[in-house]
Amino acid sequence: MRRLAIGLCVWTATALTLSGTDRLAYAREQQPAASPEAPADKPADPPAEAPAASPPGESATQEVAGAKTPTEGVQIKSRWDDIAVLPRRYSLKAKRVELMPMYHFTLNNPLIRHHGFGGQLNYFLSEALWLGIEGTGYLSQQFSGSDGTYFLTGAQDKVLPAVNKLIFSALLDFGYVPAYGKFALFNRAIVHWEGYVNLGVGAFMSEVIPVKRSDPAFQNISAMVKVGVGSRLFLTKFMTLNAFLSLYGYPDTFEPVANVSYNRDTNGACRDYYTGKQAGTPEFEAAYASCRKANGNTTLSLDVVFGLGLSFFLPPKFEYKGPR
């Protein structure tokens, strides 16, 4: 019975399937076709626009070749003023001679001011080391007016101070350049400069300015030492502007102002110098000056000076030599 029931179910399902397929095909055949005529109220679609025709005589390749690229509109700079390049050393000094006229004046002496006019002649052994000679002549400016420090000091101390004036100085100089650099001037030009130190040894001559104008003056010659610092500002490849600050030290002998016994009295403290000499003669005055100098006061004098100079390097031209 079970097998019979299953068989009936299978046959029934097969029959239903076949009958449904026939109805679907028949329905498709009976579906009416669409009307070939469009409704009268619906406008017809416009025809498609024809593609644009290329200009006569010009192909697509030529059109692409003639098109401008985005970089063709960029203007290329012909000058680069806004880019600063640090140049190499502006001037070479090795094996060249420096000739420098100079002027300087003392800063620390309240009684007298010395104005020095002179020059230096230096030979550079290398870019940083030089040897040279220096010579200076001096003009003195004594503050002896009624409102000057020389007169006021004498009025306060009741004794006029002893003052000497420098005549000349000559030194052998040794110099070294420890620093070299450059800076931008108003963001337009690059200026080169260098700083140096120097040491000098030599001699000087000074002359006493007598407190009593009737007394003879005498001169001193002794050793002198100089220590200084300075800088060079390169104006051209063979010319520089120098500024320096120096200290000159030297032992100077002043007249014996405090001891009035050293006078022209033939029986006074200078009587041994007057032996065989007649008063009023040049020999007597020279002996009087020698007596005052021998009994003068020797003191270490220190002069701080500030000066300016203009250097010229010879020969004017030089040549750079690069490493092999």
Give the arrangement of secondary structure elements.
Blueprint lengths: L1 H29 L29 H7 L30 E10 L5 E13 L4 E14 L6 H9 L5 E23 L3 E21 L9 E16 L4 E16 L27 H13 L2 E18 L10
Antiparallel strand pairs: 1-2, 1-8, 2-3, 3-4, 4-5, 5-6, 6-7, 7-8
Key terms for this structure?
8 strands; 324 residues; alpha+beta; Porin; 8-stranded antiparallel beta barrel; single chain
Give the structure's gist in a few sentences:
Helices cover 18% and strands 40% of the residues. With 324 residues, the protein is of the alpha+beta class.
CATH architecture of one domain: Beta Barrel
Number of helices: 4
Q: In the CATH scheme, what's the topology name of one domain? A: Porin
Class computed from helices, strands and strand pairing? alpha+beta
Query: Could you report the average pLDDT, rounded to the nearest whole number?
Result: 81
Unreliable spans: none
**What is the overall silhouette?**
rod-shaped
The percent range for strand residues is 35-45%
> What's the CATH C level of one domain?
Mainly Beta
Oligomer: single chain
Helix content: 10-25%
Largest sheet composition: 8 strands, antiparallel, barrel
Q: What's the N-to-C terminus distance?
A: 119 Å
The radius of gyration over CA amounts to: 54 Å
- Order of strands across the biggest sheet? 1-2-3-4-5-6-7-8
Total strands: the figure is: 8
